[in-house]
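User: Good morning. I'm curious how heme C would be positioned relative to this chain. Could you predict the structure with it bound?
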Amino acid sequence: MKQTTRKKTLWLAVLCALFVPVVIFSYPGSPPPPSARTGGFGESTCTECHFGTALNAGGGSVSISVPDGYSSDVTYTISVTVSDPTAQRWGFELSSRTQDGRQAGTLSAGSDGFTQLIPSVGGIQYIAHTLAGTRPGTRNSVTFSFNWRAPDTSSGPVVFNAAGNAANNNNTQSGDHIYNTEVTVAPAAASGPAPAVNDLGTVNNASFTPGSTPLAPGTIAAVFGANLNDGSSNAFSSLDDDGKLLTTLGGASVTLNGIAAPIFSSFSSQLNIQIPFELSGSSTASLVVTLSGQNSAAQTVPIGPSSPGIFTIPPGGTGQGAIQIANTTIFAAPTNSISGAQSRPAAAGEIVTIYCTGLGDVTNPPGTGKLASGDPLSTTVATPQVNIGGIPAAVSFSGLAPGFVGLYQINAQVPAGVATGSAVPVVINIDGAQSNTVNLAVGSQ
Ligand code: HEC
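Assistant: Good morning! Here's the predicted structure, ligand included:
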């Protein structure tokens, strides 16, 4: 068996030397190992080609350093150490699988250039040495460090398998010592009290109207409760590799009918999330907060086609609206009334931009957690009515604010004949639902 493989390898090498010499020169002396040689889950090890002693009989060892327990979506540094008193060149391969043999978490190379992902086999990732990582001439032992982003703790115990080659640096497969090992890491034990969501504690994050009011898919919502995150204060979130807002922040994640909600900010008493667009057409959703593997009791959130809420300064749903003179960053508020921002009253006939959320379905939906596009724009399917000072205002745009997640904007013209003042009421109606009433300043310019 071993002989056949060696012959094949030799024959291939001759073939390569004749027709594609570049392949030989780009991997002088040590290609990365072929995938699926960790010795775990019925795989062979490097002994399929490398020989010198029997598996694990060379007087050295391979070991894997892992966390004591893992938490969902946390990235850990994993190290594989290959030791052998006689070796002077090194290699390894590692996989991370659930106990039933599926890929668990995500492996990625470390920053030192000694590790790399090699082709996956059957959906299983393999991380291995690079040519530089073989470190010819290094004695006694080497360590390979790389990253592992843990899966959700619902994946259960994770099995790491590694095979190591403590080689003699003769650029062949002979005289090498092969070792393998396996270690299992369970989800970290839950610590601290379970998260708890307040009754009717999920509200529109702009209007803060009571949680008995339905929320539209796409709305930016606040979830109030206790022990909602790991105690950290995260006012801001970020986008993942797919350009989607993170769904775990401060250790907390939120699902509605099992769909992960993007999280804008995370505090122990409040999580700001986006109601997933996937809930379109539902009338309720079951909301659960998960922290370190512990779930909150489920809360029922009413869902409806629209839930308009106008943002205010400061937040709270009343007072000065987050309303700017269109195409500027100047708030339509009494002059110098907002610290750190410019403001002035709007004039009748001027267009203002009203920042809001919960206006429901849009054209070109960007997808849950994704930034709205400016080209093409996403406009609301329903047409809103805007009243400024009790007079209907002409609406020139109603849709998602480009470059934001879940934020809508309405551009409306301050109607002629509106009473001037520092607190002129503004309200939106869309698809049968009414927003909070906020203020803007109207002057006589
Ligand atoms: C299918 C055959 C095959 C398997 C399986 C294989 N290798 Fe190799 N390996 C080779 C060949 C061929 C070379 C010699 C490379 C050359 O000369 O270009 C080599 C060379 C090496 C070297 C340098 C050896 C020295 O003495 O200079 C290291 C380190 C290495 N392999 C690591 C591994 C590890 C770790 C595994 C298992 C996870 C593995 N290999 C599995 C074919 C294999």
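Residues 2-19 form the longest helix (18 residues). The chain has four domains: 1-30, 31-187, 196-302, 309-443.
Let me know if you'd like a different ligand tried.
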